[in-house]
Amino acid sequence: MSEMQENTQLEKPQFNADAMKQVEIIFSRYPEERRASALMPVLHLAQKEFGGWLSQASLDYVAEVVGVAPIRCYEVATFYTMYNLKPVGKYHVQVCTNIACWLCDSDNVVKVLEDKLQIKMGATTQDNRFTLSEVECLGACIRAPMMQVNDDYHENLTADTIAEIIDRLP
Amino acid sequence: MSSKVQILFKNIHKKDSHTYKVYCQDGGYKQAERAMSMSTEDVIDEVKRAGIRGRGGAGFPAGLKWSFIPKDNSRDKYLVCNADEGEPGTCKDRDIMRYTPHMLIEGMVIAAYAVGAERGYIYIRGEFVREAEILEEAIKEAYDNGRLGKNINGKKIRFDLAIHRGGGAYVCGEETGLIESLEGKKGQPRVKPPFPANIGLWGGPTVINNVETLASVPSIIENGGEWYGNLGVEKSSGTKLFSISGHVNKPGNYEVELGIPMKTLIEEYAGGVRGGWDNLKGVIPGGSSSAILPKDVCDTVTMDYDAIAKAGSMLGSGAMIVLDKSVCIVKAVERLSRFYRHESCGQCTPCREGTGWISQIMTRIENGQGVEGDIDLLLSIGDNISGKTICALGDAAVGPVAGSIKAFRDEYIYHVEHGRCMVG
């Protein structure tokens, strides 16, 4: 085996035993002949397991695990915004700027975050700690303005609470 | 309209209201038992009598939807709960799932029994990670207590329920886009007919109902369709959750009987408009896709399907976005037009291209680069989208544009002529 092949193999993503158990649980939710339905949940799992984003190799691996053609997997991964096709920071900070949040001054949330993290919307900090994204309505309109940091919602934001939330992250 | 009947939110102020134990303290899952002692036809009739209309936005009578499921047993049938909740302004289903998930599960058990579905899914928007965790736990509790799975309530009735998380696509709130997504594909809506009641998930007859609709079912079985039908007003029966956001003093989700005057709802429940009622510019009454109603209409309109439709908008999901006089309408609609452009699935040319054009024109007007004829051009593009696409996303994109031009044309003209906002 040449060195290059070895490297490729080393880089090939692989679910660990715990993740494989999760995959089995996901599969059990759908009739066996409808396995393709597991594609989205397995992609979510892969993104979580493989550092917050999905590389081409990850997509190929998910296709293999679920048993669908790679093209099906690419189609799905590129259609839904939650699948990150580029690396993101350890903390993905997503700010809603849609109408209800905008009425409650999400412009200021964007400004405070850009100032604090010293990056513009869509960028990642040099230390790969934060990625800042603008997102569409996340369904927390009555507690606007809001942002999502990884899996958690933070609502009724003010300049002070934003700073506090960011500073408190481990 | 002084009664304050609470159906969906009756338990949410209790500690640990999301748990099986607390839900059962108040007779939880007794209605599923009762429904299973009735014939499936009787259950459907009761829901028909209640007259409950789909709470997701389309307003289609739920009982009628159930009755469209073919009675033959040759194909597997499915029940799907639409918990995609993506319409800007809407965040009511989230509270049902967080605070009273068993009410939703019980509603689904009853619905599944009524239509003969042995398998069901809750399609929840992907970003609701914590809500999905709460639901997962609730589903597990329901299984552990014999409320889901094989031999429910000791009878030969089976219903398996699981969660399916979305991936952040607004169009999956459209029921056939949702089905595609559930099948592991891009969420591009299907041509209808055939309707899901005939050919839905995996080709089987499928009922798709919103969270709020399904969570209302246990109360309908408990108190009877007639009782529910007497709540609210003619053709808009029952209670409804309204998500009130924007420029109000107490934004929140409020459960009231349909037919309540909008002004009462905003002033008595949501703490009033910031700066007082006279500072109101307008209200988007049913989520971002519904046309904005200017203040003079808001003064008198009532919150029910027919009254809002008559006023030129729609009740939709019941998400009321309140705008005070400081808001530039052009800027607000420009933001929404970007949303629809982003969310168009790209399948139908009028929507894929038209939402992009609308967004570009809105942006240039907002940036002071609008030209004469832009307003008519917006309306013309709207005419060429509406009714010419597979799903309603195209119409939804046109709603805020056409509605705001109708109500606030002077602001658009001012923007084009002066290159800046009339307000602020």
Low-confidence stretches of chain B: none
CATH homology-level superfamily of the largest domain in chain B = NADH-ubiquinone oxidoreductase 51kDa subunit
Number of helices of chain A: 8
Oligomer: heterodimer
What is the C-alpha radius of gyration of chain A, as a whole number of Å? 19 Å
Write the CATH architecture name of the largest domain in chain A.
Answer: 3-Layer(aba) Sandwich
Largest interface summary? A-B, 43 and 55 residues
Average pLDDT score of chain A: 94
The name CATH uses for the topology of the largest domain in chain B is Rossmann fold
Classification by helices and strands of chain A: alpha+beta
Largest sheet entry of chain A: 4 strands, mixed
The tally of domains of chain A stands at 2
Which series of helices and strands of chain B comes N to C?
HHHHEHHEHEHEHHEEEEEHEEHEHEHHHH
Number of strands of chain A: 4
Sequence of strands across the biggest β-sheet of chain A: 2-1-3-4
| Share of residues in helices of chain A | 40-55%
If you had to describe this structure to a student in words, what would you say it looks like?
The complex is a heterodimer of chains A (170) and B (424). By secondary structure, chain A is α+β, with helices and mostly antiparallel strands. Chain A is 47% helix and 11% strand. Chain A has 2 domains: 3-79, NADH-quinone oxidoreductase subunit E (Arc Repressor Mutant, subunit A, Orthogonal Bundle), CATH 1.10.10; 91-168, Glutaredoxin. Chain A contains 8 helices and 4 strands, in the order H-H-H-H-H-E-H-H-E-E-E-H. A 4-stranded mixed sheet of chain A has the order 2-1-3-4, with helices on one face. In chain A, strand 3 (147-149) and strand 4 form a beta hairpin. In chain A, helix 3 (39-49) crosses helix 4 (56-66). Chain B has 424 residues and is an alpha/beta fold. Chain B folds into 3 domains: 20-230, 3-Layer(aba) Sandwich (Rossmann fold); 235-324, Ubiquitin-like (UB roll); 329-418, Up-down Bundle (de novo design (two linked rop proteins)), CATH 1.20.1440.230. In chain B, the strands form 4 sheets. In chain B, strands 8-7-13-10-11 form a 5-stranded mixed sheet, sandwiched between helices. In chain B, strands 3-2-1-4 form a 4-stranded parallel sheet, with helices on both faces. Chain B starts with 19 loop residues before the first helix and ends in a 6-residue tail after the last helix. Chains A and B meet through helix 3, helix 5 and helix 6 of A and strand 3, strand 7, strand 13 and helix 14 of B.
